């Protein structure tokens, strides 16, 4: 694992963007997986002018790594968030955006593998140590893409609120992420400092499921000074 601590969120976002753009410059079909949420917003704002309507990026394909589908709706909230954050402003055609749903999730990993795999994936670190849709105390560490009932998540994580119109979660599991060629985690803000320290310090465990990702052979973690405020870099520089 390579740990990079940047001074600000802006610099953290810039470093992550350069990793993405570097991968996207390859002379082949490139498959990218991106995260929604607050952490990547600055990165997307910076990246949109580089990507929008650029012929050199015409072969880029985008894969969502999790979803919480609404009943009787084609698209879930993650797809909608990514449309707002990046896909629409960057003018990414829908034909280049691949989602998982109740019909295709069981074959999602094979679909990705058959087109060359994910070249680079950017994820965040959840406030409770989750990654993608892999939540504390209910993440099967030996899984590829899987479905989990929301009530099962609530049974072990009672702070999760009811979602009557989203009965289950679909997510790439740990084994799916281990296939990604370059896995990048971005973490920012003082509110993430405690869970970030736990992620770095603790052995692999179900209370902080993101700890499993430290086994990835090409894993880059980029954070800002606020997120790193509880750690001493020298302890982790050789991880």
UniProtKB/TrEMBL annotation:
Organism encoding this protein: Longibaculum muris
UniProtKB keywords: Isomerase
Isomerase keyword on record: yes
Domain Glucosamine/galactosamine-6-phosphate isomerase: 9-214
Name of the featured protein: 6-phosphogluconolactonase/glucosamine-6-phosphate isomerase/deaminase
Molecular function as annotated in GO: glucosamine-6-phosphate deaminase activity; isomerase activity
Gene Ontology BP, a term: N-acetylglucosamine metabolic process
InterPro entries the UniProt entry points to: Glc/Gal-6P_isomerase, GlcN6P_deaminase-like, Glucosamine6P_isomerase_CS, NagB/RpiA_transferase-like
PANTHER family, A to Z: GLUCOSAMINE-6-PHOSPHATE DEAMINASE-LIKE PROTEIN BT_0258-RELATED (PTHR42892), GLUCOSAMINE-6-PHOSPHATE ISOMERASE (PTHR42892:SF1)
